[in-house]
Amino acid sequence: MSKIAQVLKITLLSWLLVGCVSLKNVDENAFTNENDPMEPVNRAVFSFNDTADTYLMRPIANGYRWLVPKFIRNSIANIFDTLTQPAHFANALLQGQFKDAGSVLGRTGVNLTFGFLGMFDVASQMGIPNPKNDFGQTLAKWGWQSGGPFVMLPLLGPSNVRDTIGLGVDSVADVYYWRFKHEKPLIYGEYALNGIQSREQMLDLMDNMKSSSTDYYAAMRTMYQQNRQKKINQVLPKSQETEQAYDFDFEIEEE
To answer: What is the pLDDT of residues 87-138, one digit of tens each?
Structure first.
């Protein structure tokens, strides 16, 4: 099964959970202001995700932070970032963001050449931006600006219909997957390590949010929606931007 099919299968699973959640006496209009018409279902998925994170992912991420020196963690994160650059480059071209495409091309060349195959982020030290254009932005640029209803994906977290499709398409451009797609242990190892290092980078942000939020689900939804709108506005003409108050910054700054 292709990576895009796996992502879309997970999305379908989250929608099928409607049949496992009682919607009796639920006022669906109560959720429209946050573009979250499936909030009871999404909260059920979020509860599953939070439990899995509390007892599995967070302890593993903490152990990873404790066992692996910071410079090695940074190198691993840099390698995974380098692997995503082909997708960023293609999306920048599709969006007509040629300056971003040039930045992606430049930083990839610099990091592969002078950063020991991407282990060190020499490009950022040289001031080359890292725009990270994605296919969700591309779809918005092509006219799908609303994004569709908010959806909480099992294990993958907050999204919407447009960005879930974008996630699936971007996953196809994973150069590591195409190089080793017939080597299942290597593919699953990449998934696991990427998930662990990504969770480790989010430890402090998510801990602070969880401890300070009266409604953790609503805080996560707001953070996602505002951050995504900020990213979408970056590729839209000024006249089409949607105003948002950015209470959260979901991007993790590399150290």
So the answer is: 999 999 999 999 999 999 999 999 999 988 888 889 988 899 999 999 999 9
Whole-angstrom Cα distance, residue 123 to residue 110?
A: 6
At 149 the pLDDT is 92
Between helices 85-94 and 70-83, what is the axis angle to 10°? 40
Separation of alpha carbons 151 and 46, rounded Å: 10
DSSP lists the bridge partners of residue 153 as: 157
The residues near 24 (Cβ < 8 Å, ≥ 6 apart) are none
Instruction: Kindly report the pTM of this predicted structure.
Output: 0.78
Per-residue pLDDT reduced to its tens digit, 190-221: 888 888 999 999 999 899 989 888 999 999 99
As a dihedral over the C-alpha atoms of residue 213, residue 77, residue 53, residue 30, rounded to 10 degrees, the angle is 50
Where are the extended beta strands (E) located within the chain?
150-153, 157-160
The helix/strand count (H/E) of the chain reads as: 13, 2
Closest Cα partner for 129 from 92, 104, 110, 109?
Answer: 104
At residue 253, the pLDDT reads 45
Distance CA 137, CA 130 (A): 15
Name the β-bridge partners of 151.
Answer: 159
